[in-house]
Amino acid sequence: MLNNFWKKIINRGVTPDLEFNVRNKIRIFNSSTFVIGSTYIFYALIGFIRGHFLAGVLTFMAWAISAFCLYLMSQRKYVLAYHITAILGTVFLFTFSLFYGETNLTHIFFFFVPVGALVLLDDFKACFIYFISTVICLLTVKILFQYYPPYYPVEAINKYLAYLNIVMTCTLLYLAVRMFKYENLIYSKEISQQRDVIEEKNKDIVSSIHYAKRIQKALLASDNLLQKNLPEHFVLYKPKDIVSGDFYWGEIVNDTFVFCTADCTGHGVPGAFMSLLGISFLNEAVKEKKITRPDLIFNQLREDIIKVLNPEGTQDEGKDGMDAVLCRFDFRNMTMDFACANNPIWIIREQKLLEFKPDKQPIGMYKIYEENEQKPFTLQTVQLQKGDLVYTFTDGYADQFGGEKGKKFKYKQLQETLMQINKLPMQEQQNVLDKIIEDWKGKLDQVDDILLIGIRV
């Protein structure tokens, strides 16, 4: 019963939405105020019994204000209660010390005012003011002790009250230490419970994302499909967050092989959703609608993405889309038709790097200047030669931060790297490129999904 009563007292104003340190301060304040208030009642009774009417009234008023502060705590007016208690404590100690003189030792409680303010208040300026006020009051009282006798004559009982002051001080210190220990135990328990919950949820989420990775991997161009149609190639595919917003897709169309390298808006789970949409629309455009020209595939893909993500047709909605390169290889006639949305194609031929510029627009909602209609994608064609190396990529490799100065890798450095390693077998090129970007990244985080594909004709 007493335990329940004590818990009700110390938890006045404590709600689950408060941070731990705030709850801790509230409980410390409530317990200290209750103990001090009980002492006020004791002193008030002693004062009235001994005929010290002014001291009794003063102490009773102090108790009433302490009770009012506990009420304020229940109303969640914490800061107001803290300030009233600090001001009340200073005034009461100053007056009570003059009533009974130095032998009563009441003035030692002045030290509790700035300490209490420091513990309870987050306002350094207010704490400093209380500290200066306390020092001034204490010095003033000590001076007055030397020149003026106590208002009430010194009696033997004053010495016992002085001892009581010391006992109460020790009691408050004990309660404060116990409260800190109790709260720390509760805090540790809460942290442990929250950690367990977070770990369990994280385990479930990561498990789900890994399963999503398997689904996404199954929808990418398979190794068998690539090996059959691109005998010499490599795919450097490094998702940033398990699943990826980058994807590669391929399909046999008549005697040609259509291949796409794409970078969807975002990465991780949002990017993965976009990649699934992209793969689905590519399959629909090529397999169902029988569109085979790269530029027309991109036009159809853009129309489908806008229809799904921006049905209202506003520029502020549905700006998600993708940057991509789509190639149609005709190895029988040694030609490659392609369309590029923001990302270029590089071809290394006879130790020279040829760059084919992209259309400066994504596959998605995008208006050219003030025109109301979308600009069609451009179809480009290149005559291939035996030994040509075709590179398609997203921006993740070039945008990776690292090196001694923590800067981006950049496209120029990527070009120089490819020029140095292009004579190596394709698998060795992949290994070298992987090692280079890992060394470049060092201890920094990967900033985006990385996709880099090389094809030797």
Provide keyphrases for this structure.
13 strands; 55% helix; five-stranded antiparallel beta sheet; 457 residues; Phosphatase 2c, domain 1; alpha+beta; six-stranded antiparallel beta sheet; 12 helices
Tell me what the structure shows.
It is a single chain. This protein has helices spanning 2-10, 20-49, 53-74, 78-100, 112-120, 124-147, 156-219, 223-229, 268-288, 294-309, 411-421, 426-441; strands spanning 233-238, 246-253, 256-264, 321-330, 335-341, 345-349, 352-356, 363-364, 380-383, 389-393, 401-402, 407-408, 450-456. The chain has 457 residues and is an alpha+beta fold. The chain folds into two domains: 2-186, no CATH class; 221-456, PPM-type phosphatase domain (Phosphatase 2c, domain 1), CATH 3.60.40. Strands 2, 3, 4, 5, 8 and 9 form a six-stranded antiparallel β-sheet that branches. The protein has a five-stranded antiparallel β-sheet with strand order 1-13-10-6-7, covered by helices on one side. α2 packs antiparallel against α3 and α9 (268-288) crosses α10. It is rod-shaped. The chain starts with a helix and ends with a strand. The relative contact order is 0.07. The mean pLDDT is 84.
